[in-house]
Amino acid sequence: MAKESKKMKSEGLPSFTIPGMTLEQGAEVAALLQDRLNALTDLHLTLKHVHWNVVGPNFVSVHEMLDPQVDAVREMADTTAERISTLGLSPIGTPGALVADRSWNDYSIGRAGAIEHLGALDLVYVGVIEDYRRDIAATEELDPVTQDMLIGQSSQLEQFHWFVRAHLETSGGALSTAGASSEVEARGQARAGVKRKTA
Ligand SMILES: [Fe+2]
Q1: What is the pTM (predicted TM-score) of this model?
Q2: Residue 87 Cα to ligand 1 middle (Å)
Q3: I need a surface site. Which of 22, 66, 109, 131 has the fewest CB within 10 A?
């Protein structure tokens, strides 16, 4: 079954698409949205993983902060998948296809302290939000209705990112994870804190 899902791919041109768009434009937007769908599915699963694996001081606040984010991101995934269907193509939502298609690695941290997971989540959100910005620019001319959807989703994701970063920020506005290039590095910097890092 997993091998079959890995073979599942978006199927070229649709036989119909949204009026006013060409079939090629429909296919291009659907391909871009499949990548957003993969990122959103990956994100809400990762957020639940953190919800289950966070330990130590601030457990309750971080554990409870994440569930509304999971719900909102699941809703975004649903809306995105249905936009692909609206464009005349088939959204792919199976785990095997997601893992085969994604250009990023699995979240790398298991049981860990709240501040450590938040440090790693900072990097997760940076990756997702950067790709949203890319796709918002790409849909400017191509499909402003999809662009509007992406802007709305990005606005919410950017706010969730701030919820995460507020835990990593000093009163002076410095971010403990600044310059980190991997989740493990961000985790370490978050654990050490801004003061020790800049001392
Ligand atoms: Fe729960």
Answers
A1: 0.92
A2: 35
A3: 22
